[in-house]
Structures are given as C-alpha cells and as structure tokens.
Request: fold
Amino acid sequence: ICSKSIIFEPDDAVKPILKKRVTFQLEVPGKTEDIVQILLQLHRASCLDKLGDQTAMVAAILQSRLARTCFDKNSFQHVTENPHMECVAEMVSPLVTNAGHVCITDCNLYFQPMNSYPVSFCAIHGLEVFCTENDLCSDIYLKFYSTKERDELYYYIATFLENHIAECTAESYMLQWQRGHISNYQYLLHLNNLADRSVNDLSQYPVFPWVISDYSSTQLDLLNPASFRDLSKPIGALNTERLERLLERYRDMPEPHFMYGSHYSSPGYVLFYLVRVAPEHMLCLQNGRFDQADRMFNSVGETWKNCLEGGTDFKELIPEFYGSDSSFLKNLLGLNLGRRQGGGRVENVELPPWASDPDDFLEKMRLALECQYVSEHLHEWIDLIFGYKQRGSEAVAAHNVFHPFTYEGGVDCDSIEDPDQKIAMLTQILEFGQTPRQLFVTPHPQRITPRFHNLSATPSLSSSELSPLSPSMESFEDLTEESKKMAWSNMNKLALQSCHKIHKEAVTGIAVALSSCLMLPDDKIVVCSSWDNNVYFYSIAYGRRQDTLMGHDDAVSHICWRDDKLYTASWDSTVKIWKCVADDISSNKRTQFDLLAEFEHEAGVNTLDLSPAGTLLATGTKEGTLTLWDIASPLPLNQLTCHSGKIHQVAFSPDSRHILSVGEDSCLVVTDVQTGMLIATVHAECFCWDGNTVLSGGMSGDLSVWDLLSSKVIHKIPAHSGAVTCMWMNEQCSTIITGGVDKQIILWKPEY
Reply:
C-alpha cells in the first residue's frame, strides 16, 4: 500500500500485477479486513474486464512486457521446436480473461500472457483444448480475433490427432442421441460445447434444464408425468399467472420488446449454485461479500419455488446437478455464509425429502434426466435453448424472448465509438447472461426411445436394440404364406399402435426401406443415394460417412441391395449393378465395387425393383415409362408408357406375375408381366400389396385398402394430417409404418 496507490502482485507469475490509485486513507493500516476489501475490489475490476480505468490497471506492468509484441521463443521447452503459427488470442478462465500470444509448434501448444495487451470483447471465435488425465496441463479455453486464425490452429492440431478425431457436428451428435448411442447428459454437454459454452467462462457456462417438479414428496415417482417440469416451456412460462403479468408488461413496452428482465444463465446464477466450492469467485462478483443469507442457495425446493413464482428469477440448472460430485451441495470449507432471518446458519443445501443425502440426490437427478419421460420431451427444451424457438416469431409464440443484448449479434459493439459506453455495454452483456449460439433452425426431432424400439420389432432391425412388444408378437415369427394371407385379410382392421413426430421435415421414406436409402443386412451400415451423383455408406453406430461410391453422371435416384450386389438408378438414364469386393463392408477400410452390368434408358431413371427371385428388373423413368429387364441381358423385355409423368415407385407382386407402379399423376397402375397389359388403375401416392389387395396412402392423409379385381376401395383409415408420402411393411405383413408431410411416422398393426 503506497501513498497514492495500491499494488497487488500475485504469487502466480502468469497473473497480472494490479495497480489502483486511491483517494482515501486507511484509518487502521493494520486492519486486514479493510485491506482485503480493497484488494478484492481491484481483483473484480480486472476479472470483469475493466469496470474502472483500464489504463491505470496496466500502468505498473513490467517494462519488458510492455515492449513485447510477439511470442517469446525463449520459452520453448526444446530448442529444436519448429513454430507453425502464432497469433494474438485470449485465454478465458472463470471471471478472468488474459490477452496474450498463442504459438503452436511441431511439439507443443503455448499461451504466453501479454498483460500490456488490452483485453478485447470482440474475441468471439472460441477453441477449447481438452487434455487427458495423463497430461500435465489442464484444459484451456482460447478465444480468437478471427475465424481464420482459430481454424488454422484447429486443423494443425487435428493433423496430429487424425486417427482420434470424429465428426463433431450438431447433426452427427443428434443422430447418435436419437438412436441411444449417447445419453441425454452427454448430448446436452455436446450441444453446450458446440454453442460455445464452457465451464471456463462463467458468462457462458453450460446450461442444463430443471426436469423434476416434485421436491416435496418422500418418494420420487419417475413413472408419473406429474413429477416432471413441462419441457416445452421456458421457466418464465411455467406459471400462468406470472406469465400473464409479464406479457402485459411486454405488450406495453417500447422497442426493443423482451419478456424477461433477467436471463436463465449468468455468472451470478452459476456462482449462486457453486458458492460453496468457488467462494472466491462469488466474493469477486459481490465486491468482497457474500450475498444476503436468505438469498443464498439454501434449499433445492425453495430455489425451484422461486423460479416458478419469483418476478425476476428464471434460471435453469448447471451440469453439476446431474454429475457425480456433490461437494457443491455441502459446506465442506466451513464458510461463514451468514445467518438467515430465522437465526439458522447457512450450511449445507437442504435437499428434497426423497433424497437421503447429496449423493442420493444427484443419483436420482441423473435417473430423472435419463428416464422415459425426459427422453421423449427433451427435444422440446432443446428447441427453446439451442433451436428454432430461440429467436424470431417462434420465440415470441413460445414466450421465450429475452433482452436483445443476450443474443449473439444482438448489438454491434464496433459501432459504439465512446470507449466508456462500449465498456459499459459489454460489461452489461457479460454480467446479464448470454443466450447460447443457435444450433438448429428447424424443429428438433424426438428421441427414438426404447418403447418405440419395441413397437418396430422386425428382422431388419438389430435384435440387440429391439424386443417383442407383447407375447402376441411372437406369433408373427412364422413366415408362412398362411400368416401373410391372414394379415392381408385383416388389413382393413389396422389399429394405430403409436405416433412419433421425430423428424424436422416431411417424412420421405421409412427407415428400413427408404426410396433412396436402405439398411444392409448386418444392421451396421445405411446406404444412401444422393442428388450429387454419389452413393454414401454411413455407419449407424457413429452417425458419420464411412465410404462413397461415385458411379453416375447425374443424381442417383434409387438403390437396391440383393445378394451382396448394389443396384443403382440414376437420372443419367442408366441403371447399374455393382459387386462388393470387400469381405466385410462394415469394416473401417475403403470398400471396392466392381461394375457388373449397365442398363441404358431413353430418360432419367427414377425408381427400380427386383423380382423376388432376383431374375427380373423393373424400372420407372421421369417420363412415365415402365421397363422390364432380364438381369442376364442388357436388352429390355418390355417397355410401357403407363403414366403421364414421373414414376415414383415400382414393385413386383410376390409371384412376379404383376408389376404395380405409382406416379406423380397420382395413379396406381397394375401391369401384367408376361403380356404387358394394364390390369387395374387406382389413385394413390404410395403403396404396399400382396398381389391382389393394395394398401395405399394418398393426398388426403388417409390409408385405403383396395381390391384390385374390382378397382374399389374396401376400407379407409384416417392416418396423417397431410399427404401420406411413404409406407413400409415387414416381411410378415404384420407391421406397417407410414410417413407423411406432417413430419410424423405412425406404426400400425392388423387386428385379428
């Protein structure tokens, strides 16, 4: 403490030296309490990035550091290291941001603080480096001033870790989560990470949802929907009365409109939960003092109640509530957190009656997060926080509108010329809370829960993932013609089993038999044809591309797999047959395909089908021509113009005597294979059939059962709210799945 200023030099050499001019004297120089208060205020000024005079706080930095303008290569651990690149960046840790130089060599990644370099709030391009348990360093979170520099550093690191880096896009994680390959907890961590949320940045700390609403019962019933919070609504919209008051204020508010005066995630809220394990950060944020005892995190139930009823409290949870470390719920440090109005000291967090201790509480919170109800509704919360309901008209409709400053790009800081106003604006953004980066702009699909797996049991799906719905399902294992006939005789008695809205767009195909997508017999690979002329092979387990077949000069419109052969139809007017050379196509090695045959057409081919015996091939073109081929010969057996437009689908009857086709003219045509004669015509968009009876879907959204001999509808079944676009039936004819433009898939079973 000097006559005109206070200087604080941390023991850690990488931390900045702080200097602050003072205009007051300490009445009792030896009073530690006063000194601590002043130093904590100085520390907070630095941590929150210059709430005071930035120039004064760097005036005492060592002259050698003031002069440094590039990375000091004398800091290399080995003299033989070759630097690849260096740039200015910021290293972010809770409440502290240090500007400095990043340098990466062929051996190490370095960060060298530059305390003379002013921290900028424009470093928004983040890169988080996670270290393994065997590394001596800790995880670091870097923010760069340009995307180019961040990406260059990332890809350079990736060259050394090529065999260990998997795709990490929101879409790939979504696919893994949908199929149950990663848990709800893991998926939320991935989404937070992709949205630039980090435990090293309290202003953008990972956000997790409240999922339980019952904190008063002695037993927690995870099978009762009433035990859970409505995940389709933000915290502020859960209480109807409070929401009405907020909406009234919102309607009377001048521009810019916002519904909530506080955010669901901010440094204050994070430290509210973590005060018992990170008291130094709370003291830093609260000017050297803890919050009032009655406003501390005293009780889980009280906190939930205040989030429901409080006029300004809309906070969500943090990952720690679903982790394994319960120390944040216990006052293990013996902190003096004050006394409440009732006289009791603030100690451990009061838990719900259904939790016997903090570890039991976390265990039940984890069970709740992974339970059936939450798995079926978590996508609704993701829409609010990371998805299409985060902004715009959808956010307004969902009552999910926060202050414009909280959104990425909500304020143009570069347009603010006054430095004091800019600092005040940016400080407000940091302290108020920030909305995660938007990851999805369309509705997030629902998770395919185990209950739905049971309903779709079929030989085409993995037996390890599927189990029978009921004992009656076992009767459908019999693949005799008698069982198929029985199923078709009851097709007019289809009973809806379940309905799932798990897609972001209109459903164009069913998972086990898409129009341009199929699953290989080993249930490990999905093969998809593409409009970019290629055929892609995707790993189901990892949701990423494994191989590519480039075999056509135009869009690949339809594919079929039979006896290790791939049949591809293309708009380049050809159909090709490929033979897989590899012993195991599901291995990680590149797969070789040899071209066996090529069938040329006069117009682009849109669909194809193989006869049950695999000897005949039927193709449909964009001009409405149906062509019948012998696989052994490149010459057509028969060629018929039976549609006035593009043919969408063709299929042989089980006895190969007839071909059924449907086109964009909404006509379903039955043709005799031997004579080429037209036998029947009905109106439909998609179909399944047994050779005599047709189950079809149309524009109305209904399913129709047709008798082809009379060309009459036997029965109609209400199904979708829009056109039925695709249909699939298992081999036993006992399970039907339909998809439509209403983004739903519906599972049906004939009633016996």
User: Anything to note?
Assistant: The first helix runs from residue 32 to 47. Residues 24-31, 47-67, 451-480 have pLDDT under 50 and may be disordered. The first strand starts at residue 5 and ends at 8.
